[in-house]
Each structure stands twice: as structure tokens, then as C-alpha cells.
Design brief:
two-stranded parallel sheet; Outer membrane efflux proteins (OEP); OMP_efflux; 6 strands; MdtP/NodT-like; about 475 residues; efflux transmembrane transporter activity
């Protein structure tokens, strides 16, 4: 009869355990997010770049798919496998997953084996004890369940941070790749100018011999060649460093010998004028903060439950005997103990209450961090989109300036032949042309960089990492 009462009591308590436990529903988390002081001050403009009603799947990514090349995809795949930061992050995520599993162990009974011995110094008797002991804390208020779910939320937050790291590394590889291509184009451009200048130097040397040019003309062009060779060395060194960066990102030895193409593939598709708002909600960093909010919710719940009484049930099965008994008689008198205990905090100088206040403050902090992440995401999209439209205009103006400078150089060369201009004017105009052509290369590089930035700001779906 007594045994039935105990079993029935345990069953009843189990059914009614986790009385104070609650899941953070979407409505609950939305209400928490609405309490943010950061978003309370933000006013959405009428010409907002985001479309609230558009579906995230409706956005075409052709404008970033234009950047794909077989070599870039190969480099990104290598980076995903061999990048040092990703390998380390994988182990960190594995540790968090194991910690999540540990956090759930408090929901179940713990069973331990006990073996001890003691000596009676008066009678010289030795007492031995063998037992199996079980202990179970009934999770009445959901303290242990909340701890388990806090660990689960921490894992998913870390998982999204890991995804963000993969996306960031892939974006860095893509940027380093295009930076190296730009360096290759700049090297080719400067080497072309050096060849032209050396040919001009040869012509001026011949003309000097026949009296149609002077020593100043030859000196001007020689000085220009020296300047261009120094400039070329600077660009080559920068390009080697960009190769080393690319090699390091893909897990290779940074020797600076990775070969890439020496031209930009044409970009055919324009940037969309607006973007679906749901894209921002799927960003890895925002998803990570969302799970941090859930974690904070569980931790507040856990801290509140810690202030309430806790109920423990324990039992042990074993035996005891002395050295005057035979070893066989050690198990002839088994002992079975079943008991329970109730522990309630009475005085701890306000420690548990302050802990609840700390957890509430941490919850408010993570909500503001979530709002800040959303605000930064909006800024990144707005900035990248604005930069891209500006770069497109700058490229158009720069190309017009290059055409005019080239025409001007042709006219100057004709004037030199009839004696109305000189080599100094020609060299100055050629240097202006080189600066504009180098600037055009930088603008085309920036266009590709900003496309990658915009793609990352929108959540980096279906291209770099999924």
C-alpha cells in the first residue's frame, strides 16, 4: 500500500511539473521587440527602399550572379573547407551543441554507485557499504526546463553566427579575388604606358640627332619612364599582397603566386530599385539576435523559478556489513530507502531577487542589440544601394573624360609635329589619361565590391553560402 502511494505521488508530481514554464511565442517576442527604445525614435520615410508587401522569393539575384566565375566558385569552395577561422568556429559550435545536451540532463534523475568502508578503532571492526543511489529534482516551476531551452536557444544563435561567418569569409574571398583582378589590369595598363613611353623616348632620341628635338624633350620622357616604373613596382607589390590575402583566406600558404584573370567580366544586370522587407528578417545576424532574445526570456524564467521551493526525491538500494560476517552474507540484508525533501530559500541577502533583476536587464539589452542590428542592416542596404547608383554615374562621366583626353592627346601630338606644342605638355596629358584610366579600374572594382556588400546586407541567399 505504501509503495502504491509513493508511485502515485511521483506520477502526479511529474504530470504537474513545470507549472511556471512558458514557451516564448511569436506574439511574446514581438511584444518584447516593440519595447525597444532604439526603434521608438525611428521614423520611416515615404520613399523607403523596402517593400513590405513583396515576397522575399520575388527578388532576382542576377545582379550578383554576374560576378560568378568558375575560378571564384572554386576559391569559395576551398575557403569553406580549409579556412582557419571556419575550422576553429566549427569546433566552437560543436562545444556549444554538447553544452546544450548537458543543460537538459537536470530534467532526469541522476543515478550513482556508492561504495565505502570504515574502521571502528575500539572494536577493530570494519564496516562496508555498497549501494546504488538515485536523486531527482522535480521541475515544479520549470527552472531546469528553462535552463535547457536557454541552452538550445544559445546553440541556434551560435549556429546562425557560424553561418554569418561562412558568408563573411566567402564575401572576403570574392572581394580579394576582384581586388587581385583589378591589380592585374592596372599592371597591364602601366606596362602598356611604359612601352609607349619608351617608344616615344626612342623617337625623341632620333629626332634630337637630326635637330627636330632637344635634350629637354628626351629628359622629360626619361623622367616619365622612371616615374611609371616606380608606380608599376608599387602596384605589383600591392597585388602580391592581395594574392597572399586570397591564398590565406582559402587555406593555402601565402606565397603570393595565385594567378587570376586580368579582365573584369561584364556586369549585365542592374540593381533593383526596391527590396522585399522580409529579406532582412532572414539575415544571419538578425536571426542570431532573435534566438538571443529567446535565450534571455528563458533565463528570466529560470531566475524567477530559482526563488521558489524545490522538491527532491531520492532513493537508494544497497547493503552493509562488517568484517566478522562472511562476504556472502553482505547481500543477505538489503536496504531500500525512499525519501523526499523540500528546500525553500529564506534569506540570501537579496541574491536571488537581484539575479532576476540582472536577467531582466540582460533581456532589455539583447532587445536593444537586436534593434541595433536591424538598424545597421537598413543602413547597409541603403548605403550600398546609394553607392552603386553613384558609382554607375561616376563610371559614365569617367569614360567620357577618358575619350576627351585621348582626343586631346592626339591633337597635341599633331601640334608637336608642327612645332606649336612640346613633349612636356604631351607627358602631362598622358599622365592625366593614365590617372583617369586607373580611376576607371577602381570604379569598376568598387561596383563589384558594393554589389557584394549589398548582397551581404540582404542576407546572402543562394550564392555565397546556403
Amino acid at each position: 500500500m505504501f509503495k502504491k502511494i509513493i508511485i502515485s505521488g511521483i506520477f502526479f508530481i511529474s504530470l504537474n511539473s513545470c507549472i511556471g514554464y512558458k514557451e516564448p511565442s511569436k506574439e511574446t517576442t514581438d511584444q518584447l521587440k516593440e519595447k525597444s527604445k532604439i526603434t521608438a525614435h525611428i521614423e520611416i520615410p515615404d520613399d523607403w527602399i523596402f517593400d513590405r508587401n513583396a515576397n522575399a522569393r520575388s527578388l532576382s539575384y542576377d545582379w550578383v550572379s554576374d560576378l560568378k566565375t568558375p575560378q571564384l566558385e572554386t576559391l569559395i569552395n576551398e575557403g569553406m573547407l580549409y579556412n582557419a577561422d571556419l575550422i576553429i568556429a566549427k569546433e566552437k559550435l560543436n562545444q556549444i551543441e554538447l553544452a546544450m545536451e548537458i543543460a537538459g540532463s537536470n530534467l532526469y534523475p541522476s543515478i550513482n554507485a556508492i561504495a565505502n568502508t570504515s574502521n571502528n578503532l575500539v572494536s577493530d571492526a570494519q564496516i562496508r557499504r555498497l549501494a546504488v543511489k538515485a536523486n531527482w529534482e522535480i521541475d515544479l516551476w520549470g527552472k531546469n526546463k528553462s535552463a535547457q531551452m536557454a541552452g538550445t536557444s544559445e546553440y541556434f544563435s551560435s549556429k546562425y553566427q557560424n553561418i554569418l561567418l561562412h558568408q563573411s569569409i566567402a564575401a572576403m574571398i570574392a572581394k580579394a579575388y576582384y581586388l587581385n583582378i583589378a591589380g592585374n589590369i592596372q599592371e597591364d595598363k602601366i606596362e602598356s604606358y611604359i612601352r609607349q613611353s619608351k617608344e616615344l623616348e626612342r623617337l625623341y632620341t632620333i629626332q634630337k640627332k637630326v635637330g627636330t628635338a632637344n635634350a629637354l624633350d628626351v629628359s622629360n620622357i626619361t623622367a616619365e619612364i622612371t616615374y611609371l616604373e616606380g608606380y608599376l613596382e608599387k602596384v605589383k607589390n600591392a597585388n602580391i599582397q592581395s594574392r597572399r590575402s586570397l591564398e590565406l583566406l582559402t587555406g593555402k600558404y601565402p606565397e603570393g603566386k595565385l594567378a587570376t584573370q586580368n579582365f573584369f567580366a561584364p556586369v549585365k544586370n542592374d540593381i533593383p530599385e526596391s527590396f522585399p522587407l522580409p529579406l532582412l528578417e532572414n539575415r544571419s545576424d538578425i536571426q542570431a539576435y532573435h534566438f538571443q532574445i529567446e535565450k534571455a526570456f528563458y533565463e528570466v524564467q529560470q531566475a524567477k523559478a530559482a526563488r521558489l521551493p524545490s522538491l527532491n526525491i531520492s532513493s537508494s538500494l544497497g547493503t552493509a556489513g562488517s568484517n566478522v560476517e562472511s562476504i556472502n552474507s553482505l547481500f543477505s540484508n538489503p536496504l531500500l530507502k525512499v525519501g523526499g525533501g523540500l528546500v525553500s530559500p529564506l534569506f540570501n541577502n537579496g541574491k536571488l531577487k537581484k539575479n532576476v533583476e540582472i536577467k531582466n536587464s540582460q533581456q532589455k539589452q539583447v532587445i536593444e542589440e537586436y534593434s541595433k542590428a536591424v538598424l545597421n542592416a537598413l543602413n547597409e542596404v541603403e548605403s550600398s544601394s546609394s553607392n552603386l547608383h553613384s558609382i554607375e554615374k561616376q563610371i559614365t562621366y569617367n569614360r567620357k573624360a577618358i575619350d576627351e583626353l585621348q582626343n586631346n592627346i592626339n591633337l597635341t601630338q599633331k601640334q608637336i609635329k608642327v612645332g606649336t606644342s612640346n613633349s612636356f605638355v604631351l607627358i602631362r596629358k598622358q599622365r592625366d589619361l593614365l590617372k583617369n584610366e586607373m580611376n576607371l579600374i577602381n570604379l569598376e572594382l568598387q561596383d563589384r565590391m558594393e554589389r557584394i556588400n549589398l548582397y551581404m546586407a540582404l542576407g546572402a541567399q543562394n550564392f555565397i553560402f546556403s
